[in-house]
From TrEMBL:
The lineage of its organism: Eukaryota, Viridiplantae, Streptophyta, Embryophyta, Tracheophyta. It comes from Aegilops tauschii subsp. strangulata (Goatgrass). Keywords: Coiled coil, DNA-directed RNA polymerase, Magnesium, Metal-binding, Nucleotidyltransferase, Nucleus, Phosphoprotein, Repeat, Transcription, Transferase, Zinc. One of its GO terms (molecular function) is DNA binding. Residues 2-271 form the RNA polymerase N-terminal domain. This is DNA-directed RNA polymerase subunit. It is found in: Nucleus. CDD domains: RNAP_II_Rpb1_C (cd02584), RNAP_II_RPB1_N (cd02733). Its EC number is 2.7.7.6. DNA-dependent RNA polymerase catalyzes the transcription of DNA into RNA using the four ribonucleoside triphosphates as substrates. One of its GO terms (biological process) is DNA-templated transcription. It comes from the Eukaryota. It is an enzyme of class 2 (transferase). It catalyses: RNA(n) + a ribonucleoside 5'-triphosphate = RNA(n+1) + diphosphate. Residues 420-447 form a coiled coil.
């Protein structure tokens, strides 16, 4: 098109056309050149083809998801991949993948001919591309000169000749490594390595336990398989990406795979006390056991015939190194008092040396929980042992369940007649209670709750009544179902369903909500045409009293559909929002990695953290561990850690008498052990006052010391009745040396030593308190041999726990934060209880935080008070009144404008008395002639005046201060029946004409100035709520005392003004926080905003019970703050970094960035992997 218009212009010039015609043609050419580059110019029409379709400009080819950068350079279509539907197969291993023959005989792997495989490859070449059934062949031979022979056409055996160094593109065979992926790839475990197993039919076969990390189900999901084409790639797949290596996720340092579905249910049933297995079934179970060596375990019952227990099946497959104590999900700690090894209901799972001694296995032990059986096997024995255990559990338990049988039917949802009567009584009582509430509301007898309107209080109370009715009905139904009930069996095992499902099926579906409230009136004061107008009864506002078993009425069905629809829409909207959040997080942090010096840096070399997660540990090896000393009182602490050296009768049974005498008599030893105890005391104090100030005694740390000690006791057969053969001095010296050897930061300079001390501070405190010399001898009874083994294990495991240099922790952090955002809710929630502070949570709040929004939906302060004020509600209430911004509008009951020409008398009968008494003794000299005949009469709300602690005199003084001498204000006594302010305008001129417009002017004063007049409080603090909070305080004598003893009053605000609030004399400025990040950075600076950012992210993520390891949140916080200012995770933040133009253009603003780079001749040193995708072949040429 441009060429054609160019020709036209040349022709016009040659033909000597007039100037204005040439100008028109030149402008047309200019227009087409401009739209060739960008066809979306503002104010310009688009250039179109003859068909009317706009032409695709260079800009539109570059930008967007389908554009050249994101569509063809950052991600490409690839060869050697396959895609098909997935179906389950519990009989393959978790790291295996069933691949259809049709795929295996199409995809190839280039195998180099060596002396060791030449014969095998010759056979494959002989079979060719169409091998006989059950065999695989080869497609091509690639000779050393690069010549490729297609075996479809090469028939001569001489041409099929192989020599060393040739490559044979052979079909896939069993055991080949492949990558499997399911989109959306939300985290690291969405692409994992599998070994293939060729199978008939046309679907990928997947083990059930692997579906959780892929978030896959078998309702038609498809997955992608990629075949690595080199040894390097296969090595990476094998060492980094294989399924067993991915069992434990760095996101929440817990497993992402566990036993699921029928195997989990079978595991619960097979481990019950009364499950006994006959000989024929047990022999067949043994045949499913891979490691069966021909030795049949002894039966638990010999006569009259040999019978084995279900627990013995697990004894076969739990690794012998495992020791574990857990509790079943239905364990009741109060009711079930342990008697040694066992509980009455068999809910204490105890595994010792790989033997299941007691307990019923359920989701809590076999699922993906921290410290569960799978987690412990993976940490203690290794990934391969965890793979074996998951596979064996499925094969053995599934075979038993197949023989034993299990089914579920409609009969499992039916409760007995007595229970059904109880349920209907509960529901009818709730309906009567609601009717009573409606009656109270009509009669205005219902007291509004603090911070809520009458209507909100009514709705809240109704909701409480109805929800309680549903829960009570549900619990009646659950209790009535016997242990043999199949539905209950599935719920208690954790394999499917919840108790809410049972109660909805059997008892009552319950209240349906839309946007967190009861179904609102839709038209003419009704929810549906079936109901009368303004009907507030439960059935009219969405309470479904029927169960699914009985069936819903048409009205109930409509309400149920409304509640369900909201969920569907919410999910659809949320998916796109969280997807974009995750993409932004990844783009902001994808170049952040651990370097070989231990620092965390981006591709430009900027230091984000000096040590990953401040301790240099990989999240995969971290487990929650108890800091014992925090939970002890002083007396218990002394007893556990201090030797009674001054007690003459001290004769310890846990060490040799000679060593005990040494401790008493040798002064040097006494000094050492006193120093050890003082160090432990100092550790306890530091933990209580600086580190664990919240009172939480469980902290995530590497190397599970307690489990290591238990393993040592079992391995070395420790007898606690015998004294140890160790001298306490050996223990102290060994621990000192061990602490020196546990290096995270190498180096002898002062800075490295300080960094090393900080990095290992918490772990060393745990180490010292766990391996205090008295505990090692008395509590654990370790011998010299076992103690040395434990020390060696601690060192090797500590080093194993260090993060590997080159780990792309930025991506891991982004995925760990983005992935839990998907199940988050989109809506705001009210905090339960008295306070009605509205808080934005879920996806909208996460968006606000990472966008660093200037205006947030619900700005709020959490205001803590000084100790002397926080203990008394009255004093706290004074601070509440002092902080809450109060305007005259908030205390006005009514305003009226009167024509009342006589200031001394009045036409308003109610006011006659107080006007008369006021002017008998006026507060000031008033020239009555200057007063306007128009009167603004304000009646104040007594309740609000008392609540805000205001007096009439104070309000009158504020008005006078605001308007100087322009207004006259008189008021009655604070104890009068009605609190009245009478305001008149004062005019300078005494002429009567001046008063004509006073009525209009008074109206202005009433509507604008007076109502907004500030009576007190801090600007922008619109509301202040008072609440009682529990605070943990560390006491040297009692440790952390019970929370109930340490209650204090605190304030929550709507609106923020941190600086002004912190300046109030009764506010504890050190603990008061704001949820508005921009205000925090302006008032307190960058370190404070980093901490605030971390706390806000934690609140959002942990609201629905999710947990993300600290180090991932810390990376995000540091990325946003390391430059000294807040960097938003948007194009305005990410694309303002010093990274190269190729890296920036792959996020957003592609064309603008490339244009600027061209104009200013920018260089790109290809430092990040993202830029290498753009120039893959020759990237190393451009490195500097």
């Amino acid at each position: 098109m441009i060429i054609r218009h160019n020709e036209n212009l040349r022709r016009q010039e040659t033909n000597g056309a007039s100037a204005h015609i040439i100008t028109e043609f030149a402008q047309l050419l200019q227009f087409h050149i401009a739209t060739y580059f960008d066809n979306d110019l503002p104010g310009q029409p688009r250039t179109t083809q003859r068909s009317g379709r706009p032409i695709k400009s260079i800009c539109s080819r570059l930008k967007g998801k389908e554009g050249r950068i994101r569509g063809n350079l950052m991600g490409k279509r690839v060869d050697f991949s396959a895609r098909t539907v997935i179906t389950p197969d519990p009989n393959i291993n978790i790291d295996e993948l069933g691949v259809p023959w049709s795929i295996a005989l199409n995809l190839t792997y280039p195998e180099t001919v060596t002396p060791y495989n030449i014969e095998r490859l010759k056979k494959l070449v002989e079979y060719g591309p169409h091998p006989p059934p059950g065999k695989t062949g080869a497609k091509y031979i690639i000779r050393e000169d690069g010549q490729r022979l297609d075996l479809c056409y090469v028939k001569k055996s001489s041409d099929q000749h192989l020599e060393l160094g040739y490559k044979v593109e052979r079909h896939l065979t069993d055991g080949d490594f492949v990558l499997l992926n399911r989109q959306p790839s939300l985290h690291k475990m969405s692409i994992m390595g599998h070994r293939i197993k060729i199978m008939p039919y046309s679907t990928f076969r997947l083990n059930l336990s692997v579906t959780s990390p892929y978030n896959a189900d078998f309702d038609g999901d498809e997955m992608n398989m990629h075949v690595p084409q080199s040894f390097e790639t296969r090595a990476e797949v094998l060492e980094l990406m294989m399924v067993p290596k991915c069992i434990v996720s760095p996101q929440a340092n817990r497993p992402v795979m566990g036993i699921v579905q029928d195997t989990l249910l079978g595991s619960k049933k097979i481990t019950k006390r009364d499950t006994l297995i006959e000989k024929d079934v047990f022999m067949n179970i043994l045949m499913w056991w891979e490691d069966f060596d021909g030795k049949v375990p002894a039966p638990s019952i010999y006569k009259p015939r040999p019978i084995w227990t279900g627990k013995q099946v697990f004894n076969l497959i739990i690794p012998k190194e495992i020791n574990l104590i857990r509790f079943s999900a239905w364990h009741d700690a109060d009711a079930e008092k342990e008697s040694g090894f066992i509980t009455p209901s068999d809910t204490m799972v105890r595994i010792e040396k790989g033997e299941l001694l007691s307990g019923i296995l359920c989701k809590k032990t076999l699922g993906t929980s921290i410290g569960g059986l799978i987690h412990v096997i993976w940490e203690e024995v290794g990934p391969d042992a965890a793979r074996k255990f998951l596979g064996h559990t499925q094969w053995l338990v599934n075979y038993w369940l197949l023989q034993h049988g299990f089914s579920i039917g409609i009969g499992d949802t039916i409760a007995d007649a007595g229970t059904m009567k109880k349920i209907s009584d509960t529901i009818s009582k709730a309906k009567n209670d609601v009717d009573e509430l409606i009656k109270q509301a009509h009669d205005k007898k219902l007291e509004p709750e603090p911070g809520r309107t009458m209507m909100e209080s009514f709705e809240n109370r109704v909701n409480q009544v109805l929800n309680k009715a549903r829960d009570d009905a549900g619990s009646s139904a659950q209790k009535s179902l016997p242990e043999s009930n199949n539905l209950k069996a599935m719920v208690t095992a954790g394999s499917k369903g919840s108790f809410i499902n049972i109660s909805q099926m059997t008892a009552c579906v319950g209240q349906q909500n839309v946007e967190g409230k009861r179904i609102p009136f839709g038209f003419a004061g009704r929810t549906l045409p079936h109901f009368t107008q303004n009907n507030y009864s439960p059935e009219s506002r969405g309470f479904v009293e029927n169960s699914y078993l009985r069936g819903l009425t048409p009205q109930e069905f409509f309400f149920h559909a409304m509640g369900g629809r909201e969920g569907l829409i919410d999910t659809a909207v949320k998916t796109s929002e969280t997807g974009y959040i995750q993409r932004r997080l990844v783009k902001a942090m994808e170049d952040i990695m651990v370097k070989y010096d231990g620092t965390v840096r981006n591709s430009v070399g900027d230091v984000i953290q000096f040590l990953y997660g401040e301790d240099g540990m990989d999240a995969v090896w971290i487990e929650p561990q108890k800091l014992d000393s925090l939970g002890m009182k002083k007396a218990e602490f002394d007893s556990a850690f201090r030797y009674e050296l001054d007690d003459e009768n001290w004769r310890p049974t846990y060490m040799s008498p000679k060593y005990a005498d040494d401790l008493k008599t040798i002064h040097k030893f006494r000094i050492v052990f006193e120093a050890e105890f003082q160090k432990l005391e100092a550790d306890r104090l530091q933990l209580g006052t600086e580190i664990a100030t919240t009172g939480d005694i469980t902290w995530p740390m590497p190397v599970n010391l307690k489990r290591l000690i238990w393993n040592a006791q079992k391995t070395f057969k420790i007898d606690l009745r015998r004294p140890s053969d160790m001298h306490p001095m050996e223990i102290v010296e060994a621990m000192d040396k061990l602490q020196e050897r546990l290096k995270v930061v190498p180096g002898d300079d002062a800075m490295s030593i300080e960094a090393q001390k900080n990095a290992t501070l918490l772990f060393n405190i745990l180490l010292r308190s766990t391996f205090a010399s008295k505990r090692v001898l008395k509590e654990y009874g370790l011998t010299r041999e076992s103690f040395e083994w434990v020390i060696g294990e601690i060192e090797s495991r500590f080093l194993q726990s260090l993060v590997a240099p080159g780990e792309m922790i930025g991506c891991v952090a982004a995925q760990s934060i983005g992935e839990p955002a998907t199940p988050m809710t989109l809506n705001s929630f009210h905090y339960a209880g008295v306070s009605a502070k509205n808080v934005t949570l879920g996806v909208p709040r996460l968006t606000e935080i990472i966008n660093v929004a200037k205006k947030i939906k619900t700005p709020s302060l959490s205001v803590f008070l000084k100790p002397e004020v926080s203990k008394k509600k009255e004093l706290a209430k004074n601070v509440q009144c002092a902080l809450e911004y109060t305007t005259l509008r908030s205390v006005i009951h009514a305003t009226e404008i009167w024509y009342d020409p006589d200031p001394l008398g009045t036409t308003i009968e109610e006011d006659v008395e107080f006007v008369k008494s006021y002017y008998e003794m006026p507060d000031e000299d008033i020239n009555l002639d200057k007063l306007s005949p128009w009167l603004l009469r304000i009646e104040l709300n007594r309740e609000m005046m008392v609540d805000k602690r205001l007096s009439m005199a104070e309000i009158a003084e504020k008005i006078k201060h605001e308007f100087d001498d322009d207004l006259s204000c008189i008021f009655n006594d604070d104890n009068a029946d009605k609190l009245i302010l009478r305001i008149r305008i004062k005019n300078d001129d005494e002429a009567p004409k001046q008063h004509e417009n006073d009525g209009v002017f008074l109206k202005e004063i009433d509507s604008n100035m007076l109502t907004e007049l500030a009576l007190g409080g801090v600007p922008d603090i619109n509301k202040v709520f008072i609440k009682e909070g529990e605070v943990n305080k560390f006491d040297e004598k009692d440790g952390f005392t019970q929370k109930a003893k340490n209650k204090e009053w605190m304030l929550d605000t709507e609106g923020v003004n941190l600086l002004a609030v912190m300046c109030h004399e009764d506010v504890d400025a050190t603990r008061t926080t704001s949820n508005h990040l921009i205000e925090v950075i302006e008032v307190l600076g960058i370190e404070a905003v980093r901490r605030s950012l971390l706390d806000e992210l934690r609140v959002v993520i942990s609201f629905d019970g999710s947990y993300v390891n600290y180090r991932h949140l810390a990376i995000l916080c540091d990325t946003m703050t390391y430059k000294g200012h807040l960097m938003a995770i948007t194009r305005h933040g990410i694309n303002r970094n010093d990274t190269g133009p190729l890296m920036r253009c792959s996020f957003e603003e592609t064309v603008d960035i490339l244009l600027d780079a061209a104009v200013y001749a920018e260089s790109d040193y290809l430092r990040c992997h993202r830029e290498h995708y753009t120039w893959p072949a020759r990237s190393y040429w451009y490195r500097r």
